[in-house]
């Protein structure tokens, strides 16, 4: 496998660990296990500054090479199946789980929610809908079969998208706001794929880590704004992928595998973290134990489900 894909999978692997831990962290607070104090909000901000923007950037990295191999209509169909089917399916899986769990979970469902429309997307499934809208637009820009756009075009689109969405008064609703917020990150990812090999080696990794830490610190002093969010997310995501462009031995191999399975983990992890929290409440309310076991369950459970499904059918049946 090319080094480029290895760093990308490592970044997805560590990114998905942060996604699972972030949801376990928020879930523990919502369940009353953690106080909404300064430590809670600090950890939340450190993670949410970049962990989902990172996945939009990484989606951009792999987009163009795949999109330009297929006619426009086939590319659009494939993106729809890859993103809209799991959005539809898992909306109702989660609704059914919450209804059956009742008051044992943080946000129980009413019976009417089982037949609700899946849009606007609910919970963490917003990512699938936002990425679908972005990729439909990007297909029109990439124009499969035509001459490739110059590299600078994608960088200009990234900057332009970030600037436009930062304008006040844009008519963005729940169906479009997340796509608009992350379009610039996606275009930045397409540019990154064109920009040549990532810096590598201990020196580059240390510099990226230093800038990453500095941007995280500075982010606490910045005003809450759309532009600040995008600039911080872009800087942190770029530093993050450079940091992951290194060899980590067995840990690196584990991250690669988690990255390759990031879709099933992303789709199913909240089922396993919530179920673990429900079970643990019967024996302990130790927040550290809830966080540790909830995160582990959120990683291992979806992977086990993936392999169980793969043994009898295509994992795509469950959107994996």
Low-confidence stretches: none
Q: Could you give the distance between the termini?
A: 21 Å
Please tell me what the overall shape is: globular
SS-based class: mainly alpha
Order of helices and strands: HHHHHHHHHHHH
Beta fraction of the residues?
under 5%
Largest sheet data:
none
DSSP summary, beta strand count:
0
Number of helices: 12
Provide the residue-averaged pLDDT: 92
Share in helix: over 70%
Based on CA atoms alone, the radius of gyration comes out at 20 Å
Features:
single chain, 320 residues, mainly alpha
Structure description:
By secondary structure, the chain is mainly alpha-helical. Helices cover 71% and strands 0% of the residues. It is built from 12 helices and no strands. Helix 11 (262-280) packs across helix 12 (287-310). The longest helix is centred in the first third of the chain and has 30 residues, at 72-101. The chain is globular, with a radius of gyration of 20 Å. The protein starts with a helix and ends in a 10-residue tail after the last helix.
């Amino acid at each position: 496998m090319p080094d480029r894909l290895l760093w990308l999978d490592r970044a997805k692997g560590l990114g998905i660990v942060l996604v699972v831990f972030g949801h376990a962290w928020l879930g523990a607070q919502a369940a009353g296990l953690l106080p909404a104090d300064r430590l809670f909000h600090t950890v939340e901000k450190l993670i949410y500054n970049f962990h989902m923007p990172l996945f939009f950037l990484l989606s951009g990295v792999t987009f163009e090479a795949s999109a330009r191999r297929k006619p426009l209509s086939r590319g659009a169909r494939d993106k729809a199946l890859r993103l809209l089917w799991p959005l539809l399916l898992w909306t109702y899986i989660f609704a059914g789980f919450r209804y059956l769990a009742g008051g044992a979970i943080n946000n129980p469902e009413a019976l009417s929610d089982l037949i609700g429309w899946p849009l606007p997307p609910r919970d963490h499934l917003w990512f699938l809908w936002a990425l679908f809208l972005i990729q439909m637009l990007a297909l029109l820009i990439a124009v499969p079969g035509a001459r490739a756009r110059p590299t600078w075009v994608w960088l200009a689109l990234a900057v332009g998208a970030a600037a436009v969405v930062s304008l006040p008064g844009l008519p963005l609703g729940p169906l479009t706001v997340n796509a608009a917020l992350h379009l610039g990150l996606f275009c930045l990812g397409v540019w990154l794929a064109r920009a040549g090999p990532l810096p590598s080696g201990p020196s580059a990794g240390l510099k990226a880590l230093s800038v990453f830490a500095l941007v995280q610190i500075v982010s606490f002093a910045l005003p809450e704004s759309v532009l600040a969010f995008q600039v911080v997310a872009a800087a942190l995501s770029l530093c993050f992928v450079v940091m992951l462009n290194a060899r980590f031995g067995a840990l690196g191999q584990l991250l690669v595998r988690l990255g390759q399975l990031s879709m099933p983990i992303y789709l199913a992890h909240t089922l396993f973290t919530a179920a673990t929290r429900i079970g643990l409440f019967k024996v302990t309310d130790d927040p550290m134990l809830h966080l540790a076991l909830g995160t582990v369950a959120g990683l291992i459970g979806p992977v086990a489900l993936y392999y169980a499904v793969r043994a009898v059918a295509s994992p795509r049946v469950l959107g994996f």
